[in-house]
Amino acid sequence: MIFPEQIWILAAVSFVVSALGWIKFVYFISLGYGFSIAAMSLYMMAAYCGSLTLPSAVLCLILMAYGCRLGGFLLHRELKSASYRKELPSLTKTSARLGFGTRMAIWLSVVVLYVCQVSPVFYRLSNGTDRYASEGWVWAGAAVMLAALVLESVADSQKSASKKLRPDRFCDTGLFRIVRCPNYFAEILFWTGCLISGIGTLSGWQWSLAAAGYLCIVYIMFGGARRLEIRQNRRYGSDPGYRRYAASTPVILPFVPLYSVERYTFLKG
Predict the structure, then answer these.
(1) What does the buried/exposed string (b/e) look like for 85-116 if buried means 16 or more CB atoms within 10 Å of the residue's CB?
(2) How many domains does the chain have?
(3) 123, 201 contact by CB (below 8 A)
(4) Does 269 fall in a domain?
(5) Which of the chain's termini has less CB crowding within 10 Å, N or C?
(6) Residue 255: inside a domain, yes or no?
(7) DSSP character string of the chain
(8) 210: CB partners within 8 A, 6+ apart
(9) Range of the domain at 102
(10) Residue 253 and residue 181: Cα distance in Å, rounded?
(11) Does a structural domain hold residue 262?
């Protein structure tokens, strides 16, 4: 069964939480994103509490930790970071021109995306095969997700510390020595782990939904890296140190010699 009743409730949970975007447009894809993931994982644990196994409980808890960490970090940054508040209008300058219909379409679109992203975990629970499907894939996926969560937390912490010391300089310390967008890479890695966790239980159209969510978030992260690269080139392009750093440090995938995505205009993250 592709769309069990519970998936509509899952979508409704995300629909309610991501309504934060009506307060401020960017919340559709920031606070609404993080807290939607957390709320959906809480719902999945409650809905399937009677059949929840240890590995699936771990997956749900990691998803919840991810969502709470991301939402909390973004909220703290907006409240405490003067530089972020200064940049926020330019990051959302097009939102003022969006009408009701467009905003509603975006709201519905992000809900579909968020449900697709967590669908490997959801279908592992709803298919009723959780106790019999290979637990090796679950633990492998959970390990990748946990590693990505730690990596993303460290990257955000290192960038915050760097900006406190030198707010007008680009960050090239810690993980940023290896890759220019370690937090975006960690995001891709996290959802790669989530997709891995679905191996052994996903089938047919379920794979299509899970793959669609995964490919969309990968596209969005590459688009985000392009947007950040353009912004940093404008801000630091006259700095020889930045030019050397950008020319020798991969933009989003560690150890992969992809140093720029600015010319790829199809990336719209």
Answers:
(1) eeeeeeebeebeeeeeeeeeebbeebbbbbbb
(2) 1
(3) yes
(4) no
(5) N
(6) no
(7) --S-HHHHHHHHHHHHHGGGGGTSGGGGTTHHHHHHHHHHHHHHHHHTTTT--HHHHHHHHHHHHHHHHHHHHHHHHHHH-HHHHHHHHHHTTTGGG--HHHHHHHHHHHHHHHHHHHHHHHHHHHTS-TTTS-HHHHHHHHHHHHHHHHHHHHHHHHHHHHHHH-TTS---SGGGGT-S-HHHHHHHHHHHHHHHHTTTT--THHHHHHHHHHHHHHHHHHHHHHHHHHHHHHHHTT-HHHHHHHHHS-SSSTTS-----TT-TT---
(8) 116, 119, 120, 123, 195, 198, 202
(9) 5-248
(10) 8
(11) no
Structure token pair of residue 216: 């969309």
- For residue 259 the two structure tokens come to 């140093």
Residue for token digits 């021109």? 97
CA-to-CA distance for 61 and 54, rounded, in angstroms? 10
Whether the Cβ atoms of residue 174 and residue 214 lie closer than 8 Å to each other = no
pLDDT (tens place) for every residue of the chain, 269 residues total: 567 788 999 999 999 999 999 998 889 999 999 999 999 999 999 999 988 889 899 999 999 999 999 999 898 888 876 666 556 555 555 555 778 898 999 999 999 999 999 999 999 998 876 555 568 899 999 999 999 999 999 999 999 899 888 888 999 999 999 999 999 999 999 999 999 999 988 988 999 999 999 999 999 999 999 999 999 999 999 999 999 999 999 999 999 999 999 999 998 86
Question: With the C-alpha atoms ordered 57, 28, 254, 68, is the resulting torsion angle positive or negative?
Answer: negative
Residue 240 forms part of a structural domain: yes
